[in-house]
UniProtKB/TrEMBL annotation:
PROSITE patterns: CDP_ALCOHOL_P_TRANSF (PS00379). The chain crosses the membrane at residues 52-76, 96-118, 130-149, 187-206. This is CDP-alcohol phosphatidyltransferase family protein. One of its GO terms (biological process) is phospholipid biosynthetic process. The lineage of its organism: Bacteria, Pseudomonadati, Pseudomonadota, Betaproteobacteria, Burkholderiales. It comes from the Bacteria. Belongs to the CDP-alcohol phosphatidyltransferase class-I family.
Length: 232
């Protein structure tokens, strides 16, 4: 049995977003080394957890450090996928691990912001921790529904909106700026309103994909039945 040659990184289409392109450049030297995409996913998780923790402490400079770590975690989040693509190490388990880490980091991110805002605005009508929890739960629901959509419609079914090389999630790169400008409170309120609304949109899209999948299955079943009758 002949051993297959490793994939040629140059043969893999170039990413369309700027952070993914940077991630591709960073991980290309790792092809053929013991470093795997799961290692990078774990690194992203560790950085994200540290960022969420520092956000929750309620101190300005610790919050700024946490925001920087979250932005770095968002960049590292692209490295595992890029390494998997150019090295041929993609797997369902690795993809699920990546999605689970994304969900966990994002939920804890909003909870951390909630605790930070609660320290500086303890008398809000709705406790800031609750707002962080609402945004976090909504984001977790979005991740779960997108995972289900991807399992039924494939990767293109969960492709994010992008423009000029940026995606929706790239707003996290602005988090350090929001922190420095003392904009965490309006950012949290906007997330507590916007995340549930977007979760509703994703839920509607999920129902649409479910209906399309059922129609395709029924059409295929009907066609197979007709073919069987024709053979008889």
């Amino acid at each position: 049995m002949t051993k297959s040659c490793p994939p040629n990184p140059k043969a893999v289409p170039e990413p369309t977003t700027w952070d993914a392109r940077l991630a591709r450049c960073l991980v290309t030297p790792l092809v053929g080394t013991p470093v795997t995409p799961n290692h990078l996913t774990t690194l992203r998780l560790a950085i994200g957890l540290a960022g969420a923790y520092y956000l929750s402490l309620g101190q300005f400079w610790m919050c700024t450090l946490g925001a920087l770590l979250i932005a770095l975690s968002n960049l590292v989040d692209h490295t595992d996928g890029e390494l998997a693509r150019i090295s041929g190490q993609s797997s369902k388990i690795g993809h699920f691990y990546d999605l689970a880490c994304d969900a966990l980091v994002t939920v804890l991110l909003f909870l951390g912001i909630g605790f930070y805002v609660a320290v500086h605005h303890p008398s809000m009508i709705v406790p800031a921790q609750w707002l962080g929890g609402i945004a976090g739960v909504a984001v977790a629901l979005i991740f779960f529904l997108r995972m289900r959509i991807e399992s039924m419609a494939g990767k293109p079914g969960t492709k994010q909106a992008s423009m000029a090389g940026f995606e929706t999630e790239d707003v996290l790169y602005l988090l350090p700026v929001v922190t420095i400008l003392n904009g965490m409170t309006p950012f949290l309120i906007a997330a507590a309103i916007g995340a549930p609304l977007f979760a509703v949109y994703v839920a509607v899209d999920f129902q649409r994909v479910v209906r399309q999948t059922r129609r395709r299955a029924q059409a295929t079943h009907g066609k197979d039945g007709n073919d069987f009758q024709a053979v008889r």
